[in-house]
Specification:
This protein has 290 residues and is α/β, with parallel strands linked by helices. The protein contains ten helices and ten strands. The protein folds into two domains: 134 residues, Rossmann fold (3-Layer(aba) Sandwich); 136 residues, 3-Layer(aba) Sandwich (Rossmann fold). It has a ten-stranded mixed sheet with strand order 3-2-1-4-5-10-9-6-7-8, with helices on both faces. The longest helix has 25 residues. About 7% of the residues have low confidence.
């Protein structure tokens, strides 16, 4: 999985634009291109002629805006295209990504009343759940530097599905020489709330350490700098704290199918990680094994 075609949805706000330098940098590393996209939202219930005029005006303004953003990042080693579409923002972004074979979407969780006037946070959430390609989400309070994504964290739960995030991680390793951190969390207590004795927890930690060592040997080239860590605690809290302690730039997580996140790492844990993470999150939608 190589991120050749990168899509950056923008709403006219500086908050949303924070991801552009990172997108351009990643595209340069992977010899790809970047498309800056703005969606002009339709207002339901208004006069048809007024709506058409408003859309035309909005498209003109959006085009001027995207051209100004593009100018700021030229000259660049990659092609930077601009596109303006109309419709419901989340659906328009997803449809554009599907029709134009986009490999990666990078967007902020919040804009702030830019030229399009749509709720960027809600849009980001909907795009994240139904995107046809991997999606990087950056919370509005975070700032990423153009040369970041150097330290990548992969939380794992021992499943083959979770291990699939290694493929895109390896592509980034090849392109920009990232440092990998593999983390597995052993949670105390079962799903039904019955606690484990300490001996059983110790056994699970030992098993996690063995698993991570085996995975490192099996799936990661020896020239790659990789760190492995097994810890006990609440999965979301451990992941967020570990990411902060290790100055992680990007956390890779996996999700399944159209229903969103639906296993320990991809359910409430993933939601909590996305809300509390001190860095960007790359979510990769994957179909379960059959």
């Amino acid at each position: 999985m190589i991120y050749k075609n990168i899509l950056v949805p923008l709403d006219g706000s500086e908050l949303a634009e924070r991801v552009v330098p990172a997108a351009v940098s990643l595209a340069e590393a992977m010899a790809g291109s970047v498309t800056l996209l703005t969606v002009v939202a339709k207002k339901p219930g208004a006069d048809v002629n007024l709506v058409a005029k408003a859309i035309q005006t909005g498209q003109f303004e959006a085009d001027l805006y995207l051209r100004s953003v593009r100018k700021r990042f030229l000259p660049s080693l990659v092609g930077i295209e601009t596109a303006v579409v109309t419709g419901k923002p989340d659906k328009a972004i997803i449809e554009y990504a599907r029709e134009h074979a986009i490999d990666l979407i990078i967007m902020s969780t919040h804009g702030r009343s830019g030229i399009t006037r749509w709720s960027f946070g809600r849009t980001a959430d909907k795009v994240l759940r139904r995107s046809p390609c991997p999606t990087v989400i950056l919370r509005s309070e975070h700032v990423i530097k153009p040369d970041q994504f150097k330290r990548i964290l992969l939380p794992l739960d021992g499943s083959r599905l979770a291990e699939r995030v290694l493929e895109p991680a390896m592509e980034m390793v090849k392109a920009i020489g990232v440092e990998l951190f593999l983390l597995q969390v052993v949670e105390k207590g079962s799903f039904y709330g019955f606690g484990h004795d300490e001996a059983h927890v110790d056994e699970e930690v030992d098993a996690a350490i063995t698993y991570l060592a085996e995975l490192r040997e099996r799936a990661i080239p020896p020239e790659v700098t990789v760190h492995t860590h097994a810890a006990v605690g609440s999965a979301a809290d451990v992941i967020v704290d570990y990411a902060a302690e290790q100055a992680i730039d990007l956390i890779l997580v996996s999700s399944r199918g159209n229903s969103g996140f639906d296993s320990w790492m991809f359910g409430s844990v993933a939601e909590k990680v996305m809300k509390g993470a001190p860095c960007a999150i790359l979510v990769i939608r994957q179909e379960p094994f059959v």
